[in-house]
Design a protein that fits this description.
BirA Bifunctional Protein, domain 2, Rossmann fold, 29 strands
């Protein structure tokens, strides 16, 4: 188990270091471009960004070396940040030339927050976050990465600002390793791979954040979903189905309306006065299935599963390939259980997660996501309820010997959760499966079961998604594998290549034979040269290639080219079929 204290301390230090670097970036840009205004500059995963109103100036990536050089020129003079609490009137005077800082000061004061300035010696800013203790010594290892556009406050109605991204690390070696990882990540960009492999497309006529999956991409989705369902059906889950629309009242009761109101896609009926919403979550619907009749304690746990699409009105600037979309397909599940069954249910869900990601070939770490007690208004339910729930998932993590750490402020608004974090082939961590404990929503919907003593009790609900968003999971898995899928998941498992026109009919017959056995086959019988056909199949990462000429037509043997290998292996027809079917059945990761 990872030390929870060291994990949180390390991240806190990195956040302070990177946020301080955002201040340094702001100072450099304002020095080089005196008419600019800095807006916000938070730390983010692996780095930081700073937003600027550049007026008429247009920045590009070509300007980053000049800005970075100015940052390195300034840094030696930054010895220590000093801090001072100010009133709203004082803040308005200090930052009267920066409308973004004045807006933030008014907002913070209205929320009852303290207004704090900081200054490393020559750059006064309005900020309350943590900062480096010794900037000139600690902030040496940074790099500016890219320039992008971002609306102020993430609202398309506001002005488009210039956002500069950067990264900062405690040591030169860590920075070098991260930059090398970024270079490797460019080669693995799922958007590039998806286009090269013909898995999904986007259309301006359909809209941003709404991917369209090709036949090959759909095969991958369907096979993964079938495996996800298989693992859950084995454990007694039952399939349900819900519509994509609902009355707004459902989400007002659940709490999603208040939490995600601005992200909801609203639909107005042309026939009635009903205001409907495209569902952003499935849990309220599944609760209505449970609520349709009374249940005995003997029936629990009751387990529902469904693969279905939810919808979020994501900001245009935040959508990125499959990583963040408007139509989000979830392999979703909900378990209704008694309090004494929670640990057993969690054990069952953990076993599903471990089997799925063991098959996929991704190592897992568990993040115990708790509420932030200093932001209690953001969460539903009492503090006592939260303390109980968080103690339960901590106990579960310990009993199942999970490699875990704790993260304050990462809980869902209705309950704590175990977020499983998968490490990809180049060392990045991604949130994947998530069992979430929920005492709150069943109470809000008045769900009940009859206990052994005849009294009515409220069940506990456990939300569970194995892949989470299938689209996002595919973006992660594509980059993890570089599109080199195991046989069971490959859209095309066997490519049959004809040497000439005389061999086409035989190739078609062989393809029909393999297809009848349950093997996914594609024929390459057009007029290109054999060499080009082989290169195309290799580029598509097809696991097996069968080149068919006179020798193969007049023999019981197949000459099999194996992906990633130079040699050709000879198999009988039957032995080859048995080999491929065994790899499909066992979901083997290796050829």
């Amino acid at each position: 188990m990872v030390s929870k204290d060291s994990q949180s301390i390390d991240q806190e230090y990195l956040n302070s270091l990177r946020h301080s670097c955002a201040h340094l970036l702001a100072k450099a840009v304002l020095t080089l471009y005196p008419g600019a205004h800095n807006a916000i500059g938070p730390s983010i995963e692996y780095g930081f960004y700073q937003d600027f109103d550049m007026g008429e100036v247009k920045l590009s990536d070509a300007d980053l070396p000049k800005i970075e050089a100015k940052m390195r020129e300034i840094l030696p003079t930054w010895k220590q940040f000093t801090f001072n609490e100010v009133t709203l009137d004082e803040a308005k005077k200090l930052f009267k030339r920066n409308p973004y800082k004045v807006e933030l000061a008014i907002e913070f004061a209205g929320e009852g927050k303290k207004l704090t300035t900081n200054d490393p010696g020559d750059f006064l800013d309005l900020c309350k976050m943590g900062h480096a203790a010794n900037p000139s010594k600690e902030m040496k290892h940074f790099k500016l990465l890219s320039v992008a556009g971002a609306y102020w406050r993430g609202n398309e109605k506001n002005k488009m600002l210039t956002r500069i991204y950067g990264t900062c690390w405690p040591t030169k070696n860590e920075l070098a390793q991260y930059l090398a990882m970024l270079e490797e990540a460019k080669k693995r960009d799922h958007r590039k791979l998806g286009a090269e492999l013909g898995l999904f497309v986007f259309s301006d006529l359909v809209g941003s954040g709404l991917p369209l999956f090709t036949p090959h991409g759909t095969i991958i989705r369907d096979v993964l979903d079938a495996y996800s369902q298989e693992l859950r059906l084995r454990q007694g889950f039952q399939r349900v189905w819900i519509p994509h629309l609902t009355k707004t009242e459902l989400y007002k009761i659940s709490g999603h309306w208040d939490k995600f109101g601005e992200e909801l896609l609203l639909v107005k009926s042309q026939e009635t006065s009903d205001e409907l919403v495209l569902k952003p979550m499935n849990c309220p619907h599944h609760q209505q299935i449970y609520a349709a009749r009374m249940h005995s304690y003997r029936e629990l746990p009751i387990k529902y599963l469904e693969t279905t699409t939810i919808y979020r009105d994501e900001q245009a600037g935040e959508m990125l390939g499959l990583s963040r979309v408007r139509a989000i397909t979830q392999d979703d599940s909900h378990v209704f259980c008694r309090p004494d069954q929670i640990e057993a249910v969690y054990g069952m869900l953990i076993s599903i997660v471990q089997e799925f990601y063991g098959t996929i070939g991704m190592k897992l770490k568990a993040r115990l996501s708790y509420r932030d007690p200093e932001q209690s208004a953001q969460y539903l339910g009492s503090s006592a309820l939260w303390d109980t729930a968080q103690a339960i998932i901590a106990k579960v993590a310990q009993e199942h010997q999970l490699d875990y750490y704790e993260a304050i402020g990462e809980a869902a608004f209705y309950g704590p959760k175990i977020d499983f974090m998968a490490t990809d082939a180049i060392g990045r961590q991604w949130q994947v499966a998530t069992p979430q404990l929920d005492f709150v929503q069943p109470q809000r919907f008045g769900l009940k079961y009859t206990d052994a003593d005849g009294s009515d009790k409220t069940p506990v609900m456990i939300h569970f998604a194995l892949m989470g968003s299938i689209e996002r999971f595919l973006s992660v898995y594509l980059e993890h594998t570089v599109g080199v899928f195991p046989v069971w998941l490959a859209p095309v498992q066997v490519q049959i290549i004809s040497v000439g026109a005389d061999h086409v009919t035989y190739c078609q017959q062989l393809g029909e034979q393999l297809t009848a056995e349950g093997i996914r086959v594609e024929l390459s019988v057009h007029n290109d040269t054999v060499g080009k056909k082989i290169r195309n199949a290799a580029k598509a990462h097809v696991p097996y290639m069968l080149v068919i000429g006179d020798k193969e037509m007049n023999s019981d043997m197949l000459h099999v080219r194996v992906r990633g290998q130079d040699r050709v292996i000879e198999y009988s027809h039957q032995d080859f079929i048995v080999l491929v079917l065994q790899q499909i059945k066992t979901r083997a990761n290796q050829l």
